[in-house]
Design brief:
By secondary structure, this protein is an alpha+beta fold. It has eight helices and eight strands, in the order E-E-H-H-E-E-H-H-E-E-E-H-H-H-E-H. It has helices at about 30-45, 65, 85-90, 95-110, 150-170, 175-195, 200-215, 240-245; strands at about 5-15, 15-25, 70-75, 75-80, 125, 130, 140, 230. The strands form four sheets. A two-stranded antiparallel sheet has the order 1-2. A two-stranded antiparallel ribbon has the order 3-6. Helix 5 (about 150-170) packs antiparallel against helix 6. The longest helix has 20 residues, at about 150-170. It is elongated and about 55 Å long. The protein starts with 5 loop residues before the first strand and ends with a helix.
Length: about 240
């Protein structure tokens, strides 16, 4: 195949390269995308989670924008109801049989379910592959506008911290990027410690700066949008007001 017909994408986990894939510019091969997604999904269990809040290793969703119609989320808690089956639960948010089958297999592995046909009412499991549009059905959201601005700041700092770890230990080292991250992180700490009413504009500056840094992270193959964390609506401060608007 000629180089002009494809792009090479590096797949990383926690900032470390774990492989690469070739993505055709003139349309993606569905089988290749599906196989690549399965491979990275399995790797996500082996390598581990980024944080306690999400089981998405960094960049695990690199192919989401290409294979899936919308972002999908994992580590979404669900309490088993009487009469529930794993198939029924998964098909409530994923109608594609092939994707549903993959989700069921991953849920079984992640929750150590020996028999997917026997789940106990009242027990808690964690779902995999929940589309963004179905998150609210399970009490979660990826809309950070429901939360205090500091939530987005913390999540972007966590994301960019992993990018900095990668950049600091690779041939892509960029001193300016690392310094900018450390400086804005220090500014945020100062803001939290010395915040007084009326200086919220400082937080707006910090958020915008972090958004710009997140865009720069794309140069190294990292995407904040592909690593969004689904947050519980119970922790939202403006959800009710938003819904009634």
């Amino acid at each position: 195949m000629e180089k002009k017909n494809y792009d090479k994408k590096i797949v990383r986990n926690k900032g470390k390269e774990i492989g690469s894939i070739f993505v055709y510019k003139k349309g993606l091969k569905r089988g290749m995308i599906f196989a690549s997604f399965v491979t990275m999904s399995v790797l996500s269990f082996v390598v581990g989670r980024v944080s306690k809040k999400t089981m998405h290793p960094i960049i695990a969703n690199t192919l989401t924008e290409n294979y899936f119609e919308e972002p999908t989320y994992s580590d979404i808690p669900y309490i088993i109801n009487e009469g529930d089956t794993l198939s029924d639960i998964v098909f409530s948010y994923e109608q594609d049989p092939n994707k549903a089958k993959l989700d069921i297999e991953m849920i079984a592995e992640y929750n150590n379910l020996r028999n997917v046909d026997h789940i106990i009412a009242g027990s808690r499991i964690y779902l995999v592959g929940v589309p963004a549009s179905k998150l609210e059905d399970f009490g979660y959201t990826d809309n950070y506008n429901y939360f205090k601005p500091s939530v987005e700041v913390d999540l972007r700092l966590e994301f960019l911290g992993k990018v900095v770890d990668y950049v600091s230990n690779s041939k892509d080292y960029n001193e300016e990027f690392v310094l900018n991250y450390n400086n804005i992180k220090a500014q945020y700490e100062n803001y939290k410690n010395d915040h007084i009413e009326g200086d919220e504009y400082k937080l707006d500056y910090i958020i915008n700066f972090l958004r710009n840094l997140s865009e720069e992270a794309r140069e190294y193959g990292f995407s904040f949008e592909n690593n969004l964390t689904a947050l519980p609506l119970s922790e939202a401060i403006s959800y009710s007001a938003y819904k009634s608007y």
